[in-house]
Amino acid sequence: MSTESGIPDFRGPDGLWNTVDPDDFTFERYLESAAARRRSWLRWSTSPLRQARPNEGHLAITELARMGRLAGCVTQNIDGLHRAAGLADELLVEVHGNVWKVRCLACPAEWPTEAVFDRVEGGEEDPHCPRCGGIIKLTVISFGQAMPAAEMHRGYTMAQAADAVLAVGTTLSVWPAADIPLAAARRGVPFVIVNLGPTDGDGIADLKLEAGAGPTMTRLVRLLE
User: Fold this and answer.
1) pLDDT value at position 167?
2) Closest of 112, 96, 103 to residue 136, by C-alpha
C-alpha cells in the first residue's frame, strides 16, 4: 500500500531484505547488541517514512469508511499513513505497531518518536530511558517479539464482521497477521487480492487483480458511489 508513497517494501525485487541483514530486525539482537540498536536508530531516523504522505490508496480506504462500507482496516504497515489519511482509530488495527511512538522496555515511559530522533541527531547513538535507564524501542514489532494481543483480537473481530475482504499490497506470507484476512475467507465471504506479484493466497482468492493499490482502490470507490 505504501510503496506508492515512496516507502520501499520488504519482500519485492527491490525490497528492504535485499539490502540489510534480516537478523538486525530480531528482538533478541536489539536487546543484546548496542551496535544493532545504533544501526536501528540511524536507519529509522534517516528513513523515507519521515517525509512520506498518504497516497490515493490510503485516501480511498478512508473514503470507504466515510461511505459506511468499511468494517475495518487491518494493516501490517508501520508508517501511520492510514491515520494521516484521516482513518479513525476505531477502524484501524496496526498489528505490527507504529513508527511514531517509542516505549521504554523496562518502565511505562513513552514518547513521540520525533523527540527521540532529535536525541539521535544530537549525538546519542543509543538513547536510553531518561527515567530508569532502560532500553527504549519503537513500538514497531520485531521478529521474535510478541504480537499485540489486543490488536490481533480487534483484527479478527473485524474479519468476522466483514461481508467481503480485500487483501491489498501484501504477499500474505507473514504470520500470524496474514491469517486475519484468511479468517474472513474461511467463512466463505468474497476474498479479493490486489497485488503486483504473487501472494500465498492466490490459490484461494475469488479474484486476483495484478494491479497497483492506489488506482485500484480509487476505482473501487468510484464504482461504489
Assistant:
1) 97
2) 103
Catalytic annotation present for 128: no
Write out the three cell numbers for 16: 528492504
Rounded CA gap, 38 and 36, in Å? 5
**Which stretch of DSSP H or E encloses residue 137?**
strand 136-138
Closest CA to 158 of 202, 205, 213, 92: 92
Residues paired with residue 210 on neighbouring β-strands, in sequence order: none
Catalytic residue among 82, 96, 128, 153: 96
Single pTM value for the model: 0.89
Nine-digit cell at 69? 462500507
The strand order across the sheet containing 136-138 reads 110-112, 101-104, 136-138
Q: How confident is the model at residue 13 (pLDDT cuts 50, 70, 90)?
A: low
